[in-house]
Amino acid sequence: MPHTSPLTRATIHLDRLSHNLRLLQELAGGRPLWPAVKANAYGHGMVPVARHLVAQGCATLCVAHVSEAEALADAGVTARVLLFSATLPEHSEAVVRLGCEPAVCTLEFAAALSRDAQRLDRPVTIHLMVDTGMGRVGIRAEDAPAFLERCAALPGLHVRGLMTHFPRADEADKTQSLQQIEQFRRCVEATRNFGIEVRHMANSAAIFDLPDAHLDAVRPGIALYGLAPSAEIANPRVRKLEPVLEWKTRISFLKEVPAGTGLSYGHTYYTNRPSLIATIPAGYGDGLSRRLSNNLDLLVGGERCPQVGRVTMDQSLVDVTALRGRVALGDEVVIIGRQGDAVIGADELGDRLGTISYEIVTGISQRVPRVALGGNT
After folding, report:
1. Looking at domain 245-373, does it have CATH number 3.30.56.70?
2. In the annotation, is 174 catalytic?
3. pTM for this predicted structure
4. Which of 4, 69, 197, 219 has the fewest CB atoms found within 10 Å of its own CB?
5. Crossing angle, helix 46-55 and helix 66-74, to 10 degrees?
């Protein structure tokens, strides 16, 4: 049965993804890039993005949860998969079966991995997560040698990597981050006799601003998708990033209403003049936050037009009075992206919501299809 073409979609420009990948490779000085494709590739569609990255030469991908590693395996993506988040022993069998490389920071999980590695006759490779200031997961740096001694005694376990993570690398003040680099270097030195092959800590912000953190491999996330880690990145090359995602819909209904007309649930907006109102089939069920109600511009006909009334689950309203005579049913409406010379970015939506671009793009719901262009996926 043929599928209908959706009115609301997210277009993923794989040529822009390739551009960002090349930029980050240059900044990393030829070190291996281990892209983060967790959270549905930051809302961009994990499988098409992962396939494209592998085709571009990326041999390692990073995810947060075992279910994401399973999804990559089910899609036939052939890459080394690094599992970022702390994982419970109950998932050790799946980790071993999938052959991914988990970040480990508890002896309970290490022991479970060893048990299942022996039972399945599949040695497992791990990365020791060290907490140098993130305060989320990881062992203390001073405990790393003793932890590695315990891991070395567990059959079927191979410690390949030593890793940590930055909480403040995207800030202008790098004092804390520089302290972390020094602390991690001391940890590397203290564990030098354990045969660890790769040390890694650099996220997107550190790739741009902290070259001393590049070490043996880097782990780009948000920058890969063309979004700056923050407005405080000092390296001017951050402005060369190209946003990979565009989120667009179309006008599904147009109506003229008189001045004083209340619009949408709760009548939080009343027209102050005779107005032409467009309905679009996009709402909070698609990831367009209800908190953006009456606080959002969209692009129609290359011009900014205000969203009016409450954003509802499936539909929202746009005041297109300024385009009267130049707008029609079915016209394109841009939520994120470019139309003519006008641009609305994920950062703008984040600013209006008091959040960051990460939350905007990862919040686009599964109902919105991702349509990948410009690659062999």
Report:
1. no
2. no
3. 0.95
4. 4
5. 70
pLDDT in tens, the chain (377 residues): 567 788 999 999 999 999 999 999 999 999 999 999 999 999 999 999 999 999 999 999 999 999 999 999 999 999 999 999 999 999 999 999 999 999 999 999 999 999 999 999 999 999 999 999 999 999 999 999 999 999 999 999 999 999 999 999 999 999 999 999 999 999 999 999 999 999 999 999 999 999 999 999 999 999 999 999 999 999 999 999 999 999 999 999 999 999 999 999 999 999 999 999 999 999 999 999 999 999 999 999 999 999 999 999 999 999 999 999 999 999 999 999 999 999 999 999 999 999 999 999 999 999 999 999 987 54
For residues 345 and 332, give the distance between their C-alpha atoms in angstroms, rounded to a whole number. 17
Task: Specify whether the CB–CB gap between 303 and 297 falls below 8 A.
Answer: no
User: Hey, where are the domains in the chain?
Assistant: 31-234, 245-373
Catalytic annotation, pick one of 38, 225, 248, 269: 38
Amino acid letter for position 144: A
Cα 266 off chain centre by? 34
Helices 175-190 and 144-152: angle between axes, nearest 10 degrees? 40
Same fold, 31-234 and 245-373: no
Active site residue 265: yes
From 174, 255, 265, 358, the catalytic residue: 265
| Cα separation values, 65 from 23, 34, 87, Å | 28, 16, 8
With CA atoms as reference, report the closest residue to 368 among 305, 281, 240, 309: 281
Q: Which H or E element spans position 27?
A: helix 14-27
